[in-house]
């Protein structure tokens, strides 16, 4: 990062077409990590795994928390996919979170140099938290609010979330990039991770057909190593264990050239999630802080 902030961020980011392989981690913030922990883990994400981005997941409502995110990201050369978190219990707290995030983005001079995109999520269509027309309107309002900061806006969602709302083309038209939940373990035809590429392609096909050539990311993207009451497959043949979690990311890694060639500038993918302490079974690290398997995916090909 430069010692003096540039005047604006219009020429700040690399071309999105360079982001077509592994780009970073989903990172849950429900624990409201301290500034020290954010710096330590963001440094690991950047320098150990060569990540470009952290994609936030969950919410911390502590005042000033996003400023801590910005500082840790800035100091470690990371961008952030920020999140307006709806949660799973309904209510209007997402509005408070939206306003707090927008306030921080406007007030913190480093924020626009760190925040690559603002997401509405997670899975607001699938969870039916807003009618799709209202969600599209919120995206447009957010784009207007952030236009002077040059920060784009998206929705973090499953293909099925759009499909079950008649395609929700108004949302697809409103968003600046397409941030896709790719979780083939839950498909009705799931078996093992190394056999999941047809499921990935089927979900991707919806966005290729209806996304108007916009840049795409797999953001909530992974395969669980365990099942739990909250992680139950829809196929009796879906296998959840550490070798399958590893195999899914190795599958994506092996498809680097394919992902690079997808229209809109290729597809960048995140690993969901950084640690099992954030979401059991999905972490690259286990709950004791050890890597569950070797993880060194390609960032280019």
UniProtKB/TrEMBL annotation:
Its main location: membrane. GO terms for cellular component: cell surface; extracellular region; fungal-type cell wall; plasma membrane. It catalyses: Hydrolysis of (1->3)-beta-D-glucosidic linkages in (1->3)-beta-D-glucans. InterPro entries: Beta-glucan_modifiers, GH. Keywords: Carbohydrate metabolism, Cell membrane, Cell wall biogenesis/degradation, Glycoprotein, Hydrolase, Membrane, Polysaccharide degradation. It is a single-pass type II membrane protein. One of its GO terms (biological process) is cell wall organization. Glucanases play a role in cell expansion during growth, in cell-cell fusion during mating, and in spore release during sporulation. This enzyme may be involved in beta-glucan degradation. Active on laminarin and lichenan. This is glucan endo-1,3-beta-D-glucosidase. It comes from Laetiporus sulphureus 93-53.
């Amino acid at each position: 990062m430069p010692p003096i902030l540039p005047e604006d961020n219009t020429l700040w980011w690399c071309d999105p077409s360079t982001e077509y392989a592994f780009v970073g981690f989903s990172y849950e913030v429900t624990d409201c990590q301290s500034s020290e922990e954010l710096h330590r883990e963001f440094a690991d994400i950047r320098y150990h795994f060569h990540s470009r981005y952290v994609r936030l997941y969950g919410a911390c409502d502590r005042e000033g928390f996003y400023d801590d995110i910005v500082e840790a990201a800035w100091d470690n050369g990371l961008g952030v996919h920020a999140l307006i978190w709806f949660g799973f219990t309904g209510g209007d707290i997402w509005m408070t979170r939206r306003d707090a995030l927008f306030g921080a983005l406007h007030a913190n001079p480093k924020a626009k140099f760190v925040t690559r995109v603002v997401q509405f999520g997670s899975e607001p269509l699938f969870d039916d938290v807003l009618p799709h027309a209202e969600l599209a309107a919120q995206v447009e309002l957010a784009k207007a609010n952030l236009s002077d900061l040059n920060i784009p806006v998206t929705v973090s969602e499953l293909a099925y979330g759009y499909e079950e709302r008649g395609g929700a083309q108004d949302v697809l038209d409103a968003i600046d990039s397409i941030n896709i939940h790719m979780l083939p373990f839950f498909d009705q035809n799931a078996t093992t991770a190394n056999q999941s590429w047809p499921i990935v392609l089927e979900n991707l096909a919806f966005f290729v057909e209806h996304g108007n050539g916009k840049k795409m990311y797999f953001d909530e993207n992974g395969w669980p190593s365990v099942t739990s009451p909250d992680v139950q497959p829809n196929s009796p043949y879906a296998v959840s264990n550490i070798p399958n979690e590893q195999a899914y990311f190795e599958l994506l890694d092996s498809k680097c050239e394919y992902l690079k060639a997808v229209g809109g500038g290729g597809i960048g993918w995140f690993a969901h999630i950084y640690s099992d302490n954030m979401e059991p079974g999905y972490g690259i690290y286990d709950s004791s802080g050890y890597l569950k398997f070797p993880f060194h995916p390609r960032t280019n090909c």
